[in-house]
Amino acid sequence: MIARNKISQVVLLAVLITSGTAVLALGGDPVSGLTLVAGEKRQRVEPINPQEPAEPKTTPRAGGQGTPRREENKRPPDPTQYSYEFTQPKFYIRHILIEHNAAGEGKVTFERLNESTPIVEPVELSIGALGRILGLWSELGFLDSHEDYQSEKQFPHLGTMRFHMENGERKRTAEFNWTNNKAAAALNKEYHRVADQAMFVFDMSIARENQPLNTPKLMEELESLLNNGGLSDPFQLVALLRDVSTDEHVPLIARNHAVRLLKRIEK
Description:
Layout: H1 2-19, E1 81-87, E2 93-101, E3 105-112, E4 119-124, H2 127-140, E5 160-167, E6 170-176, H3 182-210, H4 215-227, H5 238-245, H6 252-266
Antiparallel strand pairs: 1-2, 1-5, 2-3, 3-4, 5-6
């Protein structure tokens, strides 16, 4: 009888395991919800509380590998001041003076023939222009140099150029009318570009307000400067040209010209 009962239990156990519809918990916890096979170690599956989401796993960072705290730049601003001056009393633009700091912020002053009142306008060099200009000053080693940039040949009819730099008590001025020093010649050309661009902006603003019929000629002058690389940074003129292209106070030919130049600059 006992043997028959054991055989019945074995058959029943096989049926339950095969069908997967029963849970065998020999001496186990009825709420564990885990099916066990004889001889295997029981494991308990903890129920999940939907109101308490599990915290995401985090991997601790090794010391010094975290994002460094951003520190404020406490370095004082560069106090160096730069200036460029051009003088030729017989030229239409007889005097130009550009003054700026190490950040490229300053002013440009220019005087025209037969005009007694100088025109003073703010100037802000673009990042590209400032980089070129400061690079040339650095190449000259201006404050530490005693080089005379004047060539043996004199060309006073072309005007006189002056470079000036000062940093605290240190200052230096160099003057020439022609130079064979490539860095000095390039620096002179960069400042001329700054002046020509500033004068165009001033002339265009006056023409739009008082003499709109002069705008077509100014647009032709601008295109000539653009063709000859005579602008410090053409991208600084994009906003102005967009305004001109939609300004109904100026002739249509000037507006169309502005559109064409915009396409060239922005392409």
